[in-house]
Amino acid sequence: MGVNFSITGQLVDLAHDRVFPARITIHNGIVSGILPLDAQESPSPEQPLPFLLPGFVDAHVHVESSMLPPTEFARMAVVHGTIGSVSDPHEIANVLGREGVLYMVENAALSPFKYCFGAPSCVPATGFERAGATLDAAAVAELLERPDIGYLAEVMNFPGVLAADPDLLAKIAASKALGKPVDGHAPGLRGRDAARYAAAGIETDHECVTLDEALDKVACGMQILIREGSAVKNFDALWPLLLSHPERVMFCSDDKHPNDLVHGHINQLVARAVANGAPLFDVLRAACVNPVQHYRLPIGLMRIGDPADFIAVEDLVAFNVRQTWIGGREVARDGRSLLERVPTATPNKFAARPISADQLRVRAAGAELRAIVVHDGQLVTSSAWVPVPVLGEWAVASPGDDLLKLVVYNRYQEAAPAVAFVKGFGLNGGALASTVAHDSHNIIAVGADDAALAAAINALVPGGGGVSLADAAGNTDVLPLPIAGLMSDKDGWLVAEAYETLDAAAKALGSALKAPYMSLSFMALLVIPSLKLSDLGLFDGETFAFCDLFR
After folding, report:
1. Which of 74, 215, 312, 469 could pair with 323 as two cysteines, CB 3.0-4.6 Å apart?
2. What is the mean pLDDT of the chain?
3. How far is 67 from 257, CA to CA, in rounded Å?
4. In a 10 Å sphere around its CB, with 0-12 CB exposed, 13-18 middle and 19+ buried, how is residue 543 labelled?
5. Measuring CA to CA, how many Å separate 162 from each of 138, 153, 224, 543?
């Protein structure tokens, strides 16, 4: 099927809250006609017509977290009816700066998938860590001037906004001057502080954990993105917004690992919301219309004159996608992507050298230590004072007490590793390591002993980054990520299979977390409270300052 054709189906008209049988005519990739069918042409129960509706949009995603470049992410996403995304490239920007952003834009241009990239606002996310690059206000303003940059990406440094940081406010002002939206990121911010944050020009938030928090931000005029990703899942808490404030809601994944992308995307959230009793048309507007209108995306909504960006689904219950079209081009059919693979360059920045187990030792300096406590399915952590397990003069991991070592090792310059302790990973032995470590993407590792930690870290060095596992016997397995230490240059389904193997191996080592590697990747994200580890030391997200390990 080319860009000139007609198709018959049950048209889901989101502008008028109706469903009716119609023939849709496509000419040069544009919807040129919508003709209701008469009684003789209407479907019979024996031969039901598919339901035709606008394609789904992921309103906030870091494509890099799929471990795939934009062209490959698109190949997988279109199978589930996603035809566009609002994408923040700050992961690769923290590694490669402006050139990383342009890599994403240029790679995405090789796909018909409709990407809207933002200018990263917080690179690095804070001044308490060392990343591979910096984007100051002038660099961000330059990016925003580009027509292929659609918005200012999530303003994570909300304390900086509240403190009127000049550089940060200049970035917001540059976006506002161009009439481009400004995305937010303010976990736990409530009341007067939330109002001040919104008043500074912030328009969205995808970090709400509770319905009350979301309602606070709605009252401030913000749009709420209901997030359901690989590690962080807020749908169950927030879906009632579709009952009270449907015009303020969008759906997003934020971070979606490849093994999860195999099984579904925004279509899963639509089905769950409808099953929960949310009104069908409000749900579909959140998935299809609201992001298009808020971000002014060049995506069609099944109206005459619109680009022919639409999907065919079997029913309006499960939303199993039969076909996907973008610009009138069929890009997926019956669970199979019709997009071809695109060869890609592998830009990177990686200077880390192999490390020894001795370099990971921590001298015991008190009777108790402050441990990071992981909460499954959430970015937020808490802290706990626990007795120090000792071996001679050294503080050591104690897997039997679910107390493991956490390491952040700078990959951009020669530096000593930062070491802390963490509860909640549940490993009985071995170690996990990764160069996907939000947001600076240094090497991060968690393990039951120093030898396993060193083995897992060192397994990443030859390929310039990736995801690795060392078992208790010292055997290692690696998924290489040669694109900035974040993404693979291989087929997406093969990457998903390799990642699934590592994920299963991590769980076989004892981890009960739903997504152990994704959870590990957020242990260095300082802008999410309450206790995290940067390459410079243990960090208290409540006081926004470094803190002592021992007392």
Report:
1. 312
2. 96
3. 7
4. exposed
5. 21, 17, 20, 14
Tokens for 25?
Answer: 């005519």
Burial class (CB in 10 A: 0-12, 13-18, 19+), 488: buried
Residue type, 477: D
User: What is the rounded distance in angstroms from the CA atom of residue 540 to the CA atom of residue 524?
Assistant: 11
**Which two tokens mark 95?**
């590694």
**pLDDT given for residue 46 in this prediction:** 61
Give the CATH number of domain 58-266: 3.20.20.140
For 436, half-sphere exposure in the C-beta direction (CA atoms, 13 angstrom radius) is 29
The per-type count for the chain, helices as H runs and strands as E runs, is 17, 30
Neighbours of 493 (CB within 10 A): 16
- For 106-127, b/e burial (b = at least 16 CB within 10 A) is ebbebbbbbbbbbbbbbbbbbe
Cα 101 to Cα 93: distance, rounded to the nearest angstrom: 6
Q: What is the per-residue pLDDT across 143-169, written as a single tens digit (0 to 9) for each?
A: 999 999 999 999 998 989 999 999 999
Q: How far is CA 333 from CA 63, 308, 339, in A?
A: 23, 16, 11
How many other CB atoms are there within 10 angstroms of residue 165's CB atom? 13
Short-list 436, 438, 510, 447, CA closest to 476: 447
- What is the SS3 assignment for 258-318? HHHHCCCCHHHHHHHHHHCCCCHHHHHHHHHHHHHHHHCCCCCCCCCCCECCEEEECCCCC
Q: Is the pTM of this model over 0.90?
A: yes
For the chain, give the longest Cα–Cα distance.
87
Per-domain boundaries in the chain: 58-266, 357-546
Angle, CA 320 vertex, CA 314 and CA 325 arms, to 5°: 85
* Phi, psi (deg, nearest 5) at residue 432: -120, 145
Angle between helices 166-177 and 137-144 (to 10 degrees): 10
**H/E element holding 329?**
strand 329-333
The DSSP result for 334-389, as a single string, is TTEE-PPP---------------GGGG-EE--SSEEEEEEE-TT-S-EEEEEEEPP
Strands (E), 213-267: 223-227, 249-252
Cis peptide bond prior to 530, omega within 30° of 0? yes
Q: What is the CA radius of gyration of the chain?
A: 24
β-sheet bridge partners, residue 336: 333
Straight-line distance from the first to the last Cα atom of the chain, in angstroms, rounded to the nearest whole number? 69
Percent of the residues in the chain that have a pLDDT greater than 70, as a whole number: 98
